[in-house]
Specification:
Blueprint (H helix, E strand, L loop, with lengths): L2 H10 L1 H5 L3 H14 L6 E8 L13 E9 L7 H8 L7 E5 L12 E6 L9 H11 E12 L4 H8 L2 H10 L6 H8 L4 H11 L4 E7 L11 E7 L2
Length: 232
Amino acid sequence: MDEKEIIRQYYLKFPQISYKGTPAMGFNILWNYMEKLHNNSHFENVLEVGATHLEHLKYVKHTFGTYYATDLHLHDVDAKAKTVIENLPQSSRVKVEFADAMQLPYSDNFFDRTLTTCLFHHLSKPEVAMKELLRVTKSGGVISFFLPYDPGVFLNLVRSFTTRRNARKLFAAGEIADPKLIWALEHRNHIEGIRVLVQEVFKDHKVKVRHVPPFIKSSNLGICEFYDITKR
C-alpha cells in the first residue's frame, strides 16, 4: 500500500478515531474553548483550511456571510459532513472547496477570519501555509489556529487512552494501517519548531495565545495552545 492510500484510508475513518467516545468529549471542550473569543462576533467572509469532515464547523457560533471550508481530501466530505452543513442555520452560506494550504486560490486581503485546527504539524513547509493565511486575511482580520503539544509527554499519554486507542481498534480490524506509521507520516513537525516559525511569520502582528491547561507553556506538561492573531 502506498503512502497516499494509507492517508486516504485514515481520513475516511477520521470521525471514528477522533470524534467517537472519549476523544469526542475532549474535542468538544477544546473546540468550544477555541471559539469562545468569537462567539458574539460577525465575520463576513470566513476561511477554514483543512476542514476534513467539517467537524469544527458546528462549534463556530459567530455569524458569517460566507464560510469557505477547504481541504485536499474532498472525498472525505461525505454524507455526515453534508448533514453537518444542512443542520446549520446558515447552511446556504457554506461553500466546500478543494484548496492546498500552501497555495490558496483566493485573493489577497479577502477574508475577515481564517482558521485551522491541526494543520501545521502535517505540512512539509508549515511556514508557507502560515504566510498564505496571512496573505488572504484582511488588515484587522483574525487568524485562528490550534497547536497540539506533539510530541509532548503528557499529550502522548492522553492520546494513548483516546484517539490512539480508537485507531488501534481499527488497525486490529484491518480497516487502517498501523497507527504508528500513520502518525509518523502525518505528524512530521514538532511543537517547538512550529512555535519558532509562528513567532517569525507573525512577528509584526498582534498575537494572543491561550494554553491548555491555562498557564502551562511546557510542551511536555500541557496539551495544546490556541492562537488568535490580528493582522495589522
